[in-house]
Fold this protein.
Amino acid sequence: MNRLQDKVAVITGSGSGMGASAAKLFSREGAKVVVVDLNADAGQSVADDINKSGGEAIFVQVDTGKEADLKRMVDESIKAFGRVDAYWHNAGIAGAGAISETSEEEYDLQLSIHLKGGFFGFKHLLPHMIKNGGGSVLFTSSVSGLKPSPASPSYSIAKSGLNILAQCIALGHGKDNIRANTICPGPVETPLWPSFMNRNPDIISPEVLTQKFIERVPLGRLIQPEEIADAALFLCSDDAKMISGVLLPVDGGLVVA
Ligand SMILES: NC(=O)c1ccc[n+]([C@@H]2O[C@H](COP(=O)([O-])OP(=O)(O)OC[C@H]3O[C@@H](n4cnc5c(N)ncnc54)[C@H](O)[C@@H]3O)[C@@H](O)[C@H]2O)c1
C-alpha cells in the first residue's frame, strides 16, 4: 500500500485496458492520476471512478500522435497537481498487418501514436522532472518490440523504437535522476486483443489464432490487464529506484519460447 503516496502519475491510453487498470491501482497506492486518452467518454469515466472512490484524478483528451496535444497534457497536469513524478506512455493501437498490406497512412499512424507519445511527451515533461529532482518514465512496448513480427512490421518497429528511446533517456538523463524503462507485454486480454487476432479472419479465425498464442505461452494463458498494471506500479515506484534502461517482458515466458 501507498507505494506512490503523494506522487503524480500521467498515464496515456488509460481510458481502457491495462492503462485503466493501472490508473485505478496507482490511485489506490496514493498517486494523483492524470488520465489521458483520445476517447473522451472512456477517459472521463475512469477519472470519475477514481474521484468517486476517494482518489484524485483529472482527464485530459489527447492524441498522442500530436506534439501540441502532448504539450497541453503536460501543461494541464502541472496546472492541476504542480508536478509529475511518473509518466507512462501506454496508448496504442493494434498492428497494421504485413508490409504488402500496409498503407503510408497506417505506417505514419503506427509511428506517430507510439513514438511521438514517448518522445514529445517526455520532451515537454523533462524541465518539470528536472525541477522536481527526477522522475520515472515508462513506455508500453511489446514482445513484438523485442523480436521481429513479420505479421505487422510497422507495429514491431514502432515498439522497438520505444525500447531504444527508453534506453536513450536512461542513458542521457540518469544524471537528472530520471529513470526510463519499458514493459513488453505478451498477449493481454484487453478490448484491443481481438483487433490483433482479427487480421485475416478468412484464413484463420480469431478464436483459433488466440488458442495458438496461448499454446505458445509457457505459462499457458492470456495475461490479464491487472498483471501489466502490477509491473508498471513496480517500475514507477521507489521499489525500482535503481532500475533504468530495462525492457521488461510481462509475457508468461513467451519471449523465450
Ligand atoms: N493487448 C495486448 O495483447 C497488447 C500486447 C502488447 C502490447 N500492447 C500495447 O499495450 C498498450 C495498451 O493496450 P491495451 O491492450 O490496454 O488496449 P486498449 O485498447 O484497451 O487501450 C488503449 C487505449 O489507448 C487509447 N488510444 C488509442 N490511440 C490513441 C491516441 N492516438 N491518443 C491517445 N490515446 C489513444 C485508446 O482510446 C484506448 O483507451 C498499447 O500500446 C498496445 O499496443 C497490447
Q: What stands out?
A: The pocket of nicotinamide-adenine-dinucleotide is lined by residues 12-13, 15-19, 37-39, 42, 62-65, 90-93, 113, 140, 142, 185, 187-188, 190-193, 196 (CB under 6 Å). The first strand starts at residue 8 and ends at 12. Residues 104-131 form the longest helix (28 residues). The chain has a mean pLDDT of 96.
